[in-house]
């Protein structure tokens, strides 16, 4: 007999009440539908949680301006005086200055999402949709004209956590730009933590790894997970999305490549091919197939099971509350999250530049 609560769509996508969650969407390689998936996650979160999507992709390479109906090519018709106040540039401040709550809220571009039919008992919490605007999420992206200078987006996840708190959001979806495999290996060879290292050590963040539903995409995801495990990251707190970017069936041996990945990650979700997305991206949210939204909701549901409250006080990248400091005055690294059923790792000893281990190729600072 089917359980009564198994059909409650609204409750399935809810995050723990009062807990702020970050979902960085990271592509294993380019052209895997990363931005579209980020938008789908925000759309699923919007009816139950105040949500912001932060687009870190450089202007012109990002599709978000076109999806929002702005487009960088149409920037000449916009108010030039407000270019700095709208979108992601309006939320950024010079280093050392705290974020301005009013400026952050004014910079956000509101995007309404179609209301889905809810069955009886699917009550939404009061922290979700705004009563005046209806369900929707906010977007911070750079949609200014080509004549404007580029924007340097912070990489530190603490900045995004501080952004959520400043703007009053409880869920933040971060559409990243650099291919995660290339960025992580490059950081490892340079003996420094990668962006994925920083995301993985936060209890309030659940990295979402995206790859294409193809033989190459499955092999790329399997290699990435192997590298992350070798480097000591908690891959069992990560979710993978395998996106069908074409209308053809993937090869049968793809499931064999994904089999060991399913045992290591928290979840591996197949996102079906959607003709509306392949034709117009996320420009027409009302035309998305139910199976597409169901896959995004499954990812959010698994992320809700993994997310935990973040640090009570920490140093933001732009002058937030101060957290623990190291012996030389720099911010102390946050403690890595310990997965359920796994013993915490012993504390790592300090390694200086003369330590022999630091001279080895591929050395990564201990977590």
TrEMBL record:
Coiled-coil positions: none
Annotated segments matching region Disordered: 88-135, 310-367
Ranges of compositional bias, category Basic and acidic residues: 107-123
Domain of life: Bacteria
Composition bias type Polar residues, residue spans: 358-367
Biased amino acid composition, Low complexity: 126-135, 325-342
Protein name: MinD-like ATPase involved in chromosome partitioning or flagellar assembly
Organism, scientific name: Actinopolymorpha rutila
């Amino acid at each position: 007999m089917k359980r009564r609560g198994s059909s409650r769509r609204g409750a399935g996508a809810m995050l723990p009440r009062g807990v702020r969650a970050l979902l960085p969407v990271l592509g294993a390689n380019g052209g895997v539908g990363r931005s579209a998936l980020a938008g789908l996650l925000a759309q699923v979160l919007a009816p139950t949680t105040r949500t912001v999507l932060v687009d870190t992709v450089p202007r012109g390479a990002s599709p978000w301006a076109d999806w929002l109906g702005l487009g960088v090519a149409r920037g000449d018709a916009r108010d030039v005086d407000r270019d700095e106040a709208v979108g992601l540039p309006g939320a950024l401040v010079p280093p050392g200055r705290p974020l301005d709550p009013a400026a952050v809220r004014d910079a956000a571009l509101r995007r309404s999402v179609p209301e889905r039919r809810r069955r009886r008992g699917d009550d939404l919490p009061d922290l979700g949709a705004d009563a005046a605007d209806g369900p929707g999420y906010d977007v911070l992206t750079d949609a200014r004209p080509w004549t404007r200078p580029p924007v340097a987006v912070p990489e530190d996840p603490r900045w995004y956590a501080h952004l959520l708190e400043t703007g009053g959001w409880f869920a933040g979806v971060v559409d990243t730009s650099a291919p995660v495999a290339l960025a992580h290996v490059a950081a490892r060879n340079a003996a420094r933590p990668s962006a994925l290292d920083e995301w993985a050590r936060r209890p309030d963040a659940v990295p979402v790894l995206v790859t294409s539903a193809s033989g190459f995409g499955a092999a790329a995801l399997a290699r990435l997970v192997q590298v992350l495990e070798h480097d000591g990251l908690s891959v069992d707190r990560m979710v993978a999305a395998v996106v069908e970017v074409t209308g053809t069936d993937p090869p049968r041996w793809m499931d064999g490549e994904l089999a060991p990945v399913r045992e290591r990650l928290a979840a591996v979700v197949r996102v079906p091919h959607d003709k509306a997305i392949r034709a117009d991206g996320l420009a027409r949210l009302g035309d998305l197939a139910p199976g597409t939204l169901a896959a995004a909701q499954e990812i959010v549901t698994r992320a809700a099971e993994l997310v935990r409250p973040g640090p009570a006080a920490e140093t933001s990248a732009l002058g937030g509350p101060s957290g623990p400091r190291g012996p030389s005055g720099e911010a102390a690294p946050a403690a890595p999250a310990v997965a359920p059923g796994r013993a915490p790792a012993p504390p790592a000893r300090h390694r200086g530049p003369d330590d022999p281990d630091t001279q080895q190729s591929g050395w990564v600072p201990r977590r």
